[in-house]
Design a protein that fits this description.
Elements (H helix, E strand, L loop, with lengths): L1 E3 L3 H7 L5 E4 L6 H9 L4 E4 L12 H7 L4 E3 L5 H4 L6 E4 L2 E4 L2 E5 L1 E2 L2 H13 L1 H24 L15 E5 L5 H7 L1 H7 L2 E5 L2 H7 L6 E4 L6 H4 L4 E6 L8 H6 L5 E4 L4 H11 L4 E5 L5 H6 L6 H10 L3 E3 L3 H7 L4 H20 L4 H16 L2
Length: about 375
Amino acid sequence: MARVGRRTKELVRRMKPREIAVIAHPDLDPVAAASLAALPVAAVINTCRSVTGRYPNRGPELLVKQGIPVLDCPDPALLERLRDGDVIELVDDEVVCGNEVVAAGALVTAESLARTVTVSGRRLGPLMERFVLNTVDHVVKERNLFLGDIALPPLTTDFRRRHALVVARGAGYREDLRAVRSYLNDARPVVVAVDGAADALLAEGIRPQVILGDMDSVSDRALTCGAELVVHAYADGRAPGLGRVRRLGLEPAVFAVPGTSEDAALLLAHEAGADLVVAVGTHSNPIDFLEKGRSGMASTFLVRLRVGPNLVDARGLSRLCRAGRLPAGYLVAVVLAGLVPALVVVALSPSARSAIHVMGSHLRSILGF
């Protein structure tokens, strides 16, 4: 049976196990792929290319390794042709509905993924250079918004002299959340859920004290669980998620700050007086942001610079516990985090662009891109 939706994170909430997901998700990211695999779905039909080759995207690999067929049918009209509840099946590389072939595409295989990832790896150098340039450009423009005074909304939750655990839905967040369970029991931190992470917390038997986000991927059940609600608004005060919360008969606080909701949650906890902010599932490196369709990460650089030594990033902790040693990916994340102050200093220099261009060229020559 088909279940059709343009936004994967919303579609997953409507799906039942063994249904076929019909999505429109270019470069299907690992978080979305993991949510589909967790149901599990019977198959995925993507009306976009699951891996475009822009960067090494390993989201579809999660589904293929679990034996879930992924069929790329780059035809947006298929979303209109199929309806929820249609009985469809995949026959080789074709979609059959009512004894009629309604679409044909290409199955995503381990071999095709390996080829695409190899090719995209060769393109990563120039893409990363553009990403860094865009990030630094916005760091210069937005630095006063993050490094000056932050206007906090009135809160009933008291963060002072306590730890805060900020949970977002980044890759591996469920495993990392389980890895910090003993810390959660011992330290009793203020638990802050970023949007749909509230549902993941409730599924683990953890009730968040604060839910912050634009409220587009969190369930009504989570919004009405008793947590304090903070709607993330644009810097100019517009808050698209405010209407939904009010329709539930709730009156949230509004936090107007640029950047992602994860950035806003880290800022909120820090500025509200938390002694330590522990982050689980946050997006902290360029690949994370490319998977989210963003071309830079200025706000994340600036927020992490501001929160500074009060921030502990628990991402990848579950892998560290399993392996008994520090994984290579974790080392890469540490190196990237260490570049933050350097990038900010360079951004404020008159010769920023020329310096970054030289660095980018040198990096490409070293890596062979």
